[in-house]
Amino acid sequence: MSDTLQLTQERNQLFYDVIEGKIPKRVPIAVTVPTEFAIQYAGEDLTETQWNNVKLEEIFDKICQDFVTDTIPVKALRFPSWYKILGSKNWVMSSGGFLQHPEVEGMAIEEYDDFIANPYNCILEKILPRLYVNLDKDATTKAMTLAKAFKAFFDEVGHARMVSAKLIQKYGYATVNLTAGFCEAPFDFVADQLRGFKGISTDVRRVPDKVEAASEAALPLMLKAGIPPVPSKYGSTFIPLHMAPYLRTKDFEKLYWPTFKKLVEGLAEAGMPSFLFAEQDWMRYLDHLEELPENTRIMFEYGDPKLAKEKIGKKHIILGFYPISLIKTGTKQQCLDKAKELIDILAPGGKYIFSFDKSPVTVDSINVENYQAVLEYVALNANY
Amino acid sequence: MGDLQAITKAVGELDEPKLLELLNEFIASSPGKKDAQEVVAACQKGMALVGDLFESGEYFIGDLIFAGEVLTAAIDTIKPVLGDDETVKIGSMVVATVEGDLHDIGKNIFKSMAEAAGFRVYDLGIDVPPSAFVEKVKEVKPQIVGMSGVLTLAIDSMKNTVEALREAGLRDSVKIIIGGNPVTEGVCKQVGADTYTTNAAEGVKICQGWVK
After folding, report:
1. What is the CATH number of domain B2-82?
2. Partners of residue A201 in chain B, C-beta under 8 Å
3. Given B60, B152, B186, which is nearest A361 (Cβ)?
4. Which of A43, B29, B59, B137 sits 20 to 30 Å CA-CA off A374?
5. B146 bridge partner residues
6. Nearest CA-CA distance, residue B127 and chain A, Å
7. Phi/psi of residue A238, each to 5°?
8. pLDDT tens, B145-164?
């Protein structure tokens, strides 16, 4: 057996143990930087290189050489090509060359009933042409645009996956895929893509029954999106959670939680665990999270790691909590101390995977040396 | 006047139907401009209550956004009586989401609460380069500059903006507050701002303190 294949097996074993409720040899590390970060790190031009994937392998390889992790440390999520072809309004480029999701309204408040009656048709006929202006054309142009966009999407994503697979093999990374599927909590889908942050915040007060019904209508779509062709208990479907911390608890319980819980349960029944990114502070909802199917992976942004470990740490797998802002502003020693502090709290009893509270979006948003030092520290010291 | 208290209460409780009912009653009573100004003041008091309820953990971000909408609806309702009469401002500020960042939910909440507190707010929008801050500060001479951002890349943009203000000789003429998801005390120091907050209500209070 080659050395890298053995490394892959050893690294997989760390994750298998965590997932099976055993104590692994060491706390596994699952952190990634996005394509934009990798391009800047390689010293390439961000705007240009996002359009030209020829150098992607070289760029990703450099991250693999310089950052110690157990899963591949770089992840391609979005490229501008297909958004540009579609005339996207929900993913747009900033002046710095970083694709972002601005506030959008894909659906007017008067259209709730249409969406509730037939969400798929409503998305196709009303919402997509609004979010992607080049789909708001005559039938022939629209079909051509959609075909071109999908061609670009599959070309880019296929290439990026091929590059990742090569690097996983080359460096012996774990093949466990935490983000093997992707969907949103039904309420978040209604908020992010249909009504916008402002729209949903007023709808919660003005038309709560419609928000509830729309979330129910979105649930089957999210289930369909979130279950991959071959579910695996070692993989997981990534669900970045958004709106819950911005709601009152009583609104959360009535409008957000029921369909979200059904989604995670539905994925689990299909054999697919969920990997939740709990954006902002979810400490108010730990008792709710405790009700989710066992071994849900939950990456926390802010909050109290002690409280989270105590309340859900025996049932679920915890990630996150490490403030990426400290990597930017702290000294190396402060950064290492924070890693030790979190490991001491979260590692006992297993069910912990090391990650930061979020990925750094660009090279200038962190101090790279601190980032590397923390990863090395965890790889060497977080042994059981 | 009992009605004014009821208006303040309705805003504070974010009871929109009740508030609009009270305001429509008010309009129907053929009020004068001065009465209308008192109603605006009552609404602003209600917004301060909203801020307090946010700080005490009873309201959340979604409620602050809704409060902004309620206040806009209220002012629109009494506008026919109010006319274009300008109320006295307690100070002025230039706010924007910094270069490279397109997120404006937080900035908009802060803006609407600052306006409700009596500030004149010059909003430059999103993805705003340092040079645009400098130009606007030169033009309107505000007491305060507010910079907002959500992504971690906003930190360097904030720093560059402070630098640009310094180079233009404007840094000492303004107080600078930064807000948004990535800001911390450490970030504030690095950026060279005067203070930071992740809480719009608190931020408005700090600004009120600066112009007293």
Report:
1. 1.10.1240.10
2. 61-63, 65-66, 69
3. B152
4. A43
5. B95, B177
6. 7
7. -80, 125
8. 999 999 888 999 999 999 99
